[in-house]
Design brief:
This protein is globular. The chain starts with a helix and ends with a strand. It has one domain: Metallo-dependent phosphatases (Purple Acid Phosphatase, chain A, domain 2, 4-Layer Sandwich). The protein has seven helices and 13 strands. The N terminus is likely disordered. The strands form two sheets. It has a seven-stranded mixed sheet with strand order 1-4-3-2-11-12-13, covered by helices on one side. It is α/β, with parallel strands linked by helices and 302 residues long. The structure holds zinc ion. The site of zinc ion has 8 residues, from loops. Zinc ion binds next to loops.
Length: 302
């Protein structure tokens, strides 16, 4: 396996950090270091995008004939093989109500990936913030955690895009989500200070006007609209894969790893290559509608 020796060293270094655990973020400093390289502008930055893993403590606990533990166990080796520099799990990490056992199982399943890339885990309506932090303690060293009271907000700088992971968990195991005033105020203060690079936001909840969607979505767009460097918002929640647009911002709905809600939708993850002017997203399916497995969708933000 090419690069094995080098990778083994990285893995060892990472493990020594991960054992002190470190991380809502299982994070190393790769992304930050890369952003300082002179050739950064020509780079493509590979990020593995996962959402709605819905990991239960029990292997046989599933939905619609899907077994989320089994799905993630298939996905993780694929992600490791793709050699991402970063991985994001965009909420609903846990099966239903965010039990400690769910997160312990999630951590076990993600460990082979955490050994080769930093993983950032956002929160959704089936997560429990307190239980989550019991298993993935905040990492003071990572410098990604943002000071938003009561929310888990992270900022990850890469050579070609700045990634902001927002927290829309409002009530555990109830459908609707909310950023809330503290987080909106933080975003409104942050965006004018970060204009030199495209920004991609991640939030768990859907961005329409449904009663189970992001309830302050219009207030989010009034904050984002004046800041043209915000190019994309990635979301999950609906267990669908599709790309749309609002106010010039690309909206990217990530497929679920755990299960779909309808047979027409894929179950899997997205291998995303970010570059200066967009992102090339390759769908990787492990179940559901697999017709578009391997299909690359180019989203250009100019
Ligand atoms: Zn979900």
């Amino acid at each position: 396996m090419p690069g094995f020796f080098h990778e083994a060293i990285d893995r060892k270094q990472f493990l020594s950090r991960a054992t002190s655990l470190g991380a809502a973020m299982l994070f190393n400093s790769t992304a930050r270091a890369d952003s300082d390289t002179p050739a950064a502008n020509q780079e493509r930055f590979r990020v593995a995008l996962l959402s709605d893993t819905h990991i239960p403590v029990t292997a046989g606990d599933g939905h619609r004939g899907f077994l989320p533990q089994e799905n993630l166990a298939k996905v993780v080796p694929q992600v490791v093989e793709s050699q991402p520099k970063l991985a994001i799990v965009n909420g609903d990490a846990a099966r239903l109500d965010g039990q400690v056992g769910d997160y312990e199982k999630l951590r076990e399943l993600l460990t082979p990936l955490a050994q080769v890339a930093p993983i950032h885990i956002g929160l959704g309506n089936h997560d429990d913030r307190g239980n989550f932090f019991n298993v993935f303690p905040a990492d003071a060293e990572s410098k990604t955690s943002q000071p938003v009271t009561g929310k888990h907000v992270s900022l990850v700088d890469t050579p070609v895009v700045r990634i902001v992971v927002l927290d829309s968990l409002l009530y555990v195991n109830k459908v609707a989500g909310l950023l809330g005033k503290n987080q909106r105020d933080w975003l409104a203060e942050f965006l004018p200070t970060a204009t030199d690079k495209p920004i991609a936001c991640f939030v768990h909840h859907t961005l329409d006007d449904g009663d189970g969607s992001l309830l302050d979505v219009d207030r989010l767009f009034s904050i984002v609209r004046p800041h043209k460097q915000v190019k994309a918002i990635f979301y999950g929640h609906s267990h669908r894969y599709e790309v749309s647009e609002r106010d010039g911002v690309k909206l990217i709905n990530l497929p679920a790893v755990g299960y779909n809600f309808t047979d027409d939708q894929p179950v899997g993850w997205v291998d995303a290559e970010f570059h200066q002017s967009g992102v090339a997203m390759t769908l990787k399916t492990v179940g559901g509608n697999q017709n578009n497995n391997g299909k690359t969708t180019d989203v250009i933000w100019g």
